[in-house]
Specification:
Strand order of the largest sheet: 1-2
CATH topology of one domain: Four Helix Bundle (Hemerythrin (Met), subunit A)
Order of helices and strands: HHEEHHHH
Shape: globular
Low-confidence stretches: 1-20
Mean pLDDT: 85
Strand content: 5-15%
Distance between the termini: 103 Å
Structural class: mainly alpha
C-alpha cells in the first residue's frame, strides 16, 4: 500500500511534467502592449490669430475697456459705468467672448495670419511667418499668454457678476497687461523699450 501511495504521486507528476517539458519556453515577463498613439485633436482651425483679434478680441476688449471710463468735457468730468441690467449684460457678453478668444488661441495648428499677409510695420513687428515660427518654438509661452487673456476675461466676469465697477476697471487693466505680454513676446519682441 505504501508503494502505491508513493507511485501514484510520482506517476501524476510525470504525467503533468511531460507536456510541460515539450511546450515551447515562454518569455519570463510578458511584453507590455505598446502605448496608444496620442489622439489627434479634432479641431481644425480655419480662422487665423489675426482673424480672432480683428473679429472677436479687439471689439470685445474695447467694450470692456470703455464700459468704465472718465473723461473731461466742457461741463466737467463725465463718468461712464454700466448702470442698467442691459449695460451689465452687454459688457458680460464681451467679457465672455474674451475668455473664449483666449481658448481659441490655444488650439494647435492655428496660423498667425494668412501666408500672403505682410507686417504693417516691418522692422518693428515680425512678419507672420516669423510669428508662426516663434509660436511653434515657444508653444508653452504661447499657451501661458493665451491663458492669461482668458483669465483676465474671467476676472472681468467675476466683477460683472458682482456689478463691481472698480473691479471691472481693474480687470480692464489686467486684460491690457495680458494682451501686451503676448504682443511683446510674439508680435513685436524686438521693439526697443
Amino acid at each position: 500500500m505504501r508503494s502505491f501511495l508513493v507511485l501514484v504521486p510520482v506517476a501524476f507528476l510525470a504525467f503533468v511534467a511531460a507536456p510541460l517539458a515539450q511546450a515551447p519556453a515562454r518569455p519570463a515577463a510578458a511584453a507590455k502592449p505598446a502605448a496608444p498613439a496620442a489622439a489627434r485633436s479634432p479641431f481644425k482651425p480655419t480662422a487665423t490669430v489675426k482673424d480672432i483679434m480683428d473679429d472677436i478680441m479687439i471689439p470685445a476688449s474695447e467694450n470692456v475697456f470703455n464700459s468704465v471710463s472718465s473723461t473731461a468735457g466742457p461741463t466737467g468730468q463725465v463718468d461712464k459705468v454700466p448702470t442698467t441690467d442691459a449695460d451689465w449684460a452687454d459688457v458680460r457678453k464681451n467679457a465672455r467672448l474674451i475668455v473664449e478668444a483666449g481658448n481659441l488661441l490655444m488650439i494647435e495648428g492655428r496660423h498667425v495670419a494668412p501666408a500672403s499677409a505682410k507686417s504693417e510695420h516691418p522692422g518693428v513687428e515680425l512678419e507672420p511667418a516669423e510669428m508662426d515660427a516663434l509660436v511653434a518654438k515657444n508653444r508653452t509661452k504661447w499657451m501661458l499668454a493665451a491663458q492669461g487673456i482668458a483669465e483676465a476675461g474671467l476676472t472681468a466676469l467675476k466683477a460683472i457678476d458682482k456689478k463691481d465697477v472698480m473691479g471691472l476697471s481693474d480687470a480692464g487693466g489686467d486684460l491690457d497687461e495680458a494682451c501686451e505680454t503676448c504682443h511683446t513676446q510674439f508680435w513685436y519682441p524686438n521693439e526697443k523699450k
